[in-house]
Fold these 3 entries.
Entry 1:
Amino acid sequence: MSAVTPGLVCAHHHLYSALARGMPAPPVVPRRFGEILEQIWWRLDAALDLDIIRASARLGAMEALLCGTTGIVDHHESPNAIEGSLDVIAEACAEVGVRVVCAYGVTDRHGPDGARRGLAENERFLRAGGRGVVGVHAAFTCRDETLEAAAGLARDLGVGVHIHVAEGPEDAAAGARLERLAADDWLLVHCVGLDRDLPGTIAHNPRSNMNNAVGYARPARRPNDVVLGTDGIGADMLEEFRLAYVAHRADDVTATPETAWTWLMNGHRFVPEAADDRVTWTYDHADSPWHVAFTPGMRVTDVVRGDGEVLVRDGVPTRVDPAEVRAHAAEQAARLFARL
């Protein structure tokens, strides 16, 4: 017995983190969110080069596809390999057959020149016809001038902004700083400590929020539309749905899986073609939120794009050799860890 669903969408990913598993321990044990960024993720992104980015994106896209995820909204940062990075990610995902919406996360962490180069990478990619939006890391790592420049570039290009918002206490002032800039086409990620309503769609990342101990975002209490992301912890969106449901239920005992399922399906607003893809699962009720919420272990057998191309047959990708993708990723992970 089996069931067929549309392709799923990870509405907030960091494909560059696919090689992070097994990375060397940080020099100091992080004890708060800011230290997690400083000791882990900001060391990692500074060590990236284009070869590592390609290997990570290919592995992340392939693993997404094998979880039935045919669309990804990615948020990228590689301060020492900015120029051309979005092309590398887009090409790697296309090789696998996964659609991707790209953005470079602009930040002043590396000075005004780093912010300028990040803005330029967004603009270059978008003006060349790349599928994406303007990325911003977070308000707390950007000057007001940088936030205004990013918002202005997005308006000029007719796209939204993809930005982390009030993920931890370090970004507590995000609401006040973004209030006059945010628009309906913005993707607001996390919003755990957001102190006011902002226009835009909220990307809820329950596993990441738990992993970073930043608290529960309570997305159901916001007036915004909500989508689900993983914040770079893979792209198993049925598992993310289950976590979104139980986190909601722990906060509100009247919550049902239908709410988190709606959040999952809302991802098609960012990658609408994924709704035309067809994913076949090993479980005959994979299209039921109540069944999926309480049935772990279902797997993908086949994925067929809306245009009829078979991307996964009998659990195996058709466009790439999984062994080669994983071997290349292992080689580049070793390089990455040495650079750390």
Entry 2:
Amino acid sequence: MERRKLEEHIRALATIEENDSPLISCYLTANQGGIVCREQLDARFRVLRKCLPARSVAEFEEAQRSIETFLKAGLSQRTRGVALFARAGERPLWRVLEFEAPLPTWIAVGSSPNIYHLMELKDNYDRYAILLMTETSARIIGVNLGSVTAQLWRSRPELRQRVGREWSKDHYQDHRRERTRQFVNDQVRSLERLLLETGYEHLILAGNPRVTATVRKALPKNIAEKVIDCVPASRTDDVSDIVASTLETFLAHEEMESQAVADRLITQLQTHGLAVAGAAASIEAVKSGQADILVIVQGYDPGRAWECQGCGRFSLALPRPGACPNCRSRRVREFDLRGELARIAELRRVAIEVVEHSDALMSLGGVGCLLRYSGPANYVYTAA
């Protein structure tokens, strides 16, 4: 699946209207055409069924059957992660997304789709291009969410048969060097055009180290700035192996960028700048449109919270009250806090940065926001 399609699915899921029917958000790790943790899926379904009020069990079981029926048919051999969203009742929902990138096994039920793991996938597995170069051929590969989505071939005609027949060896070597230089320049122009047309922001050079070094020197500054690594590869290597070798490099680069964002957030907090931390301040900043980037530590999972739809009061304290203690409204909704943060961020067009590890941010609640402008939310909450 391409990133653009994923973004369309995320947007559609984020805007689905809630109702009283239970909605299952099911993320599963897959391999060789099937799911990996079948026992965990069954156990989660049993637990979730017990957590629901009696009036919702029938609709939950109908949604569960839809998931079971789909999984029995099998998955693509290339699928490494699958996300399923199912709801029965008067306004049924059924949406399945398969990926060549992995997803965790995570199953929850609520009144709206939980899109956090899709947002995490989008952040971690961004798009990048690979230029695979040898002395005789070039291949430009577009990688999107861990899978190949575009290829562009350029081949250089073989000159060796002309040696000893028309040219001397020295003549051939001079011509070969000139043709190599011209060939590299041609591929650089093709690469520049492709990156401009497709919007790839990251590039990995692959091939013989001597050739990739020549290519790197020939890159214009605007393209050279996109290069994050050079990896060894040969013309005979399988594309999937090349992608696998570059994917690890790309994910490491993504984590470095995420760490830089987290460090910037901490610096802003230390200097009373444009940042807030903690669940309450973050959700307020995202909802108000003040947030520019929502930064979440990967292991952050604060559980559930509630909000009054009458006065907007938000609380991490559970259980949810029957009526809001602030305005006495009974329109009190409970939700998974991490999923709700991801949903509101999508609705408000707030970028999400998932950082693998940050002790400083975890000590402040595991979540924070870089802000567009200063305001009342410029203080720190800790997520209890």
Entry 3:
Amino acid sequence: MDSDLIQFIQQDKFAQYVGTKLIEVKPGYARVQMEVTENHLNGVGMVQGGAIFALADYAFAAACNSSGMLTVGINVNISYVKSPKGKVLSAIAKEVSSGKKICNVHIDVLDENDDLIAVAQATGYRK
């Protein structure tokens, strides 16, 4: 993977702010992680859905931009399956289709026990 591309993906200021980290990226694939802190919890002490979404969105961005073509999200649907256990969440994004202008990515969010926490489907537009 091109080191300039990895640096581009890692420059996402919001992803840095919420604590996501790029673990692996290759064409059409990305794995990212986030260590859960008190700042990620909602009012009842569970991981806030927006934090889980941010993790999935960053994995989506890394996977669809791994082609080297600037790609932005135009639609993301997420379903939350269960509350995570432990302190580390991972998101694995895999491109399932890719064209000249549109790509589709499937994202699984897992807790540190590898239990499925959320599933997302995302569509990207290649600029």
